[in-house]
Amino acid sequence: MTYVRFRGPFGSTRLAGVGVPVQIRTPELQLVKTVMSSDGVTLDPGRYIVTARLPAGHEITRVLDAGDAEQTVDLRIDTRAAQPLESTETPAYISQQRTPNPVRRAAPRRKAAKRSMTRGFEDYVLAAEPISAPEAPQGVLRCFTGNPLAGPMTQFAPPSDVLEKGTDVVEYRIKNVNALCFTQSVQPDLPPVNISLPISQQRGCILLVHRQPDRYWIEVHLENPDANLLLGYQQNRAMQEEAVTAERLLEGKLDDPIAAMVGAYSLLRFGELDRLHNWSKHLMDWMPWIPDGAAIRGEHLARLGEHQEALEVFLAVPARGVPMFADGISFLLDRLRLYTSSRAATQFPPERVAAAKELHAKITEFSSYVDFEKIVTTFTGLDPSKPDTRPFHGPLPPGTDCAAAFL
Known about the structure:
Layout: E1 2-7, E2 21-25, E3 31-36, E4 41-43, E5 46-53, E6 59-66, E7 71-74, H1 86-94, E8 115-116, E9 125-126, E10 140-145, E11 154-156, E12 162-165, E13 169-174, E14 181-186, E15 193-197, E16 205-212, E17 215-222, H2 225-235, H3 239-251, H4 257-270, H5 273-276, H6 279-286, H7 291-303, H8 307-320, H9 326-339, H10 350-367, E18 378-380, E19 403-405
Helix pairs in contact: 2-3, 2-4, 3-4, 4-7, 6-7, 7-8, 7-9, 8-10, 9-10
């Protein structure tokens, strides 16, 4: 027997310890084992084909001749000595956003003064810096907290905690907090884009801002690298690889509830109800500030045939807020549509059916502006509580002191 270790596939510091699913096959392509690259594996002597598939679709294949001695299979994407830039490698191989949010070319901005913002987010400090490129595209970044379904939201200062900065990319850290938060990309002649920030008391998230000659786009990544990798597989529909990590993330629900939500969504996507056990109830009960917990619990109950209880859970979702992940909105829409249909409505009390119809109409109106191609909830509108598709032609409404240029 031969013990085999794997190196890679990522070289950047943050991703160095992240494992990806690795398939080990015979030369005739018969599957022998599927393991995580962060784990080792014991194999009988012989020749094997080792393949790691990354979320963005890249495949890394190596031929392994297993003998009696321990071996290491190098799965690194880039085997050069230099470490890749974090903000370059992360979006290239774990990208959640399929399409950029474009912006028109405009005049460069002037340097803004440094100022502190409060409104319950005292840790945020806006420290804007000038863009050196003479013809850089124009746009501003705004941040909001609150429930878009419940009325006006509160602005807070965009993050200034820069993790890494290159010529055309900057990587921010959004600090952990128990609140629903959104970032907004305001760009001339285009509808403003709002993106949910998947953060909790335990973990923040990473905000990547990219600049091209005539546009910006932003990406949101989880701080938990394994959960972030799983989101990448979800975005690119790599379902077999996605399933490998999901249950492991659920087991750490108290340490990282956002990662646990990601794992639960994956198990629901696969119909792995046995693996969910009673964890969906824990996610809902123990993290009431995260609306996804109720959406996940409602869908779990519905698939178990507990439709009366599922409806009650779904009716409570909007009071918690808009789910951070688009799957939660889809569950809510689909189940409310079913439960209010003429065929199914007879199994529920009339007053609950009436409440479900009212809620379904409200969620349908909101969801018409949601981009369901994105994993993280993304929708358009300058006022997040009143989404629409109107392009932005200026000026910004009151509160622009809480806005910052992109780079």
